């Protein structure tokens, strides 16, 4: 019983959105094009991250909520910096996969706090 609560606690503390950013940065540094398998890996990773963050936002606590919102905003800023760097400094044209990764981060930044808020309202019996 203790190990399952420890793994759940680990699951709730990990900012999963950073996996998408790290993947995009690593593929850029290693000069791996996102066409083909690396792009499909990004799509799979993005879907996993979106589900993980949405599931994580359903377990509401004030500290977890604040950390989730802060990491979502930091992830959004980091992704924006990465996209701007790719376009303006590297002169690279963005692909579908870049926009997909950014959309996952934007969706997490919007829907996770909304899900947390909805769960908090339900837990407190507001509107019932």
UniProtKB/TrEMBL annotation:
Keywords: Membrane, Transmembrane, Transmembrane helix. The chain crosses the membrane at residues 12-30, 36-55, 62-90, 96-114. This is Uncharacterized protein. It comes from Candidatus Electronema aureum.
